[in-house]
Write a structure and sequence with these properties.
Helix 1 crosses helix 2. The chain has one domain: Glutaredoxin (3-Layer(aba) Sandwich), CATH 3.40.30.10. About 20% of the residues lie in helices and about 20% in strands.
């Protein structure tokens, strides 16, 4: 049986995953141009289906610019401070199943620390 997220010690949720959904109007790269909304929607659905949503568990949140546009689309899991770049729903499934459900970082999807705007 999978290990549930750790109990929230100082907050309402054990983990938050924030998806950058920013759209730049000036033609610069942005996460919204790279299917970020689809990743967010799929993650929210999967977290609910897995029974991971709610108090003491996981919250899936929209975010504005996270200033890591060059790696977009991006998501970050807190309090773990783990940054991901993803391509498709299979990547999101792996983040949900491995990290959000079992606490195991998905190494292949990590956003390199040097990637910024």
């Amino acid at each position: 049986m999978p290990t549930p997220p750790p109990p929230a010690q100082s907050g309402y949720y054990a983990r938050h995953i924030f998806f950058c959904l920013n759209e730049r109007k000036n033609g610069e790269d942005s996460c919204s141009q790279n299917n970020a909304q689809a990743g967010f929607d799929h993650c929210k659905m999967r977290v609910k289906q897995a029974g991971l949503a709610g108090q003491g568990k996981v919250r899936v949140n929209k975010a504005g610019c996270l200033d890591r546009c060059a790696g977009g689309p991006v998501a970050v899991v807190y309090p773990d401070a783990v940054w991901y770049s993803f391509v498709d729903t299979e990547d999101i499934d792996e983040i949900v199943d491995s990290h959000l459900k079992n606490g195991q970082v998905v190494e292949r999807l990590l956003l390199p620390p040097s990637v910024g705007r």
